[in-house]
Specification:
Layout lengths: L4 H11 L3 H10 L4 H19 L6 E8 L5 E9 L2 H4 L2 H17 L4 H6 L10 H12 L4 E9 L1
Helix pairs in contact: 1-2, 2-3, 3-7, 5-7
């Protein structure tokens, strides 16, 4: 089955992975977008596994205070380089995790990583991080979080 440039662009906009990866996934899926999404999701996990041994000596601390002022969160998210730590994409992942912690009150890192992502129930926080690894090309690790309530 043929696929269009618009389909490649839509898949790239949705997933954030490279145009070539989107094109390859669509080729492998014979033009089926849903299958291509699943292929990219699987490849994200494979890429994350390959990078998991890399040292994460840089990072970003994100904060979030809920609008009622009664819940606050700090999240420490690590990556390999200062260059990636300063990107909007990396900071956005850290912020999304901070909002997740505020909303869902996980007991520890393992519980948080398994939680369904509040903005997209089709993926977990672990999968959100793996998508970031695929997009940014570096190992990303959740170091810690603190949730404070009144």
């Amino acid at each position: 089955m043929e696929f269009t440039t618009e389909q490649i662009k839509a898949l790239r906009d949705e997933t954030g992975v490279s145009v070539m990866q989107c094109k390859k996934a669509l080729e492998e899926a014979n033009g089926d977008l849903e299958t291509a999404r699943m292929i990219l999701k699987k490849k994200s996990s494979e890429i994350a596994a390959k990078k998991s041994d890399r040292a994460t000596g840089e990072g970003f601390v994100a904060s979030y205070v809920h609008q009622n002022g009664k819940v606050g969160v700090l999240v420490s998210l690590l990556c390999e380089t200062d260059f990636v730590a300063r990107t909007d994409e990396f900071k956005s992942i850290a912020h999304e995790i901070a909002m997740q912690v505020a909303a869902m009150d996980p007991k520890d890192n393992a519980a948080l990583l398994k939680q369904e992502y509040i903005r997209d129930g089709s993926k977990t926080i672990d999968e959100l991080i793996k998508e970031g690894i695929t997009k940014l090309g570096e190992n990303i690790q959740l170091a810690s979080f603190t949730r404070i309530t009144i």
